[in-house]
Amino acid sequence: AAGMFFTKSRGGLLGTLVMLTVLILTRAPKLGLTIIITGILAVGGGVFFLLLVYGWDGTVAGLIPGRPEAVLDRLIIWTRAIKVFTDHPLFGVGFGGFHDEVYRTGGIALNVGLGYESLHCHNTYLEVLTGTGLVGFLSYLTFLAACMTKLVSLWVNRKGLPSDGFILAAIAAQGAYMMFGMVDMLFLQNMHFMLLTILTLGFMAGQREPEPVKETTP
Fold this sequence. Notes:
This protein has helices spanning 2-7, 10-27, 29-53, 60-63, 68-87, 98-104, 124-156, 164-180, 192-206. It is globular and about 70 Å long. The longest helix has 33 residues, at 124-156. The protein is built from nine helices and no strands. It is mainly alpha-helical.
């Protein structure tokens, strides 16, 4: 909570909301479904309220409080990322090569100047897509799906071990990671990806039935 307050990270807030939703859906599916439907209706009602009362012009800049330019810049970068992908669809431009490709082809005009030549897609999925093409992107999605599927399976078939609560936490953490990845680049700059791998493999090993010890006769 303190981190959300001091950083004012909208991506972190989205990730936290997804994490809480995943926890509720896992622990109480019916309640979670009710909350999701209520949330969708609330968002729709909120948009209608903005249009009716505040005269919202329908633009992203008019909807996002604080620094709308940062959101608009993401849209510009994402559009450029799609262009880079369509130019190199199969294998991409090399992981981390989005920056070089953009500046090699004329740079990019943003609302908020970076002040330094550091640029990524501000989206983990687009970063993988532009860097490794469809081959790497589909591999990445397969990995995420395999981790989530295995973690959910471990939770459904839990054995009452003290580590069961950590499995639920890992499921929620992956949900937050996958949401936050839509608005920022989390692949190499942080340890999220490696942590996800270690957690999944660790829980898989911890939940295995111990093999019976074979007695040897002298």
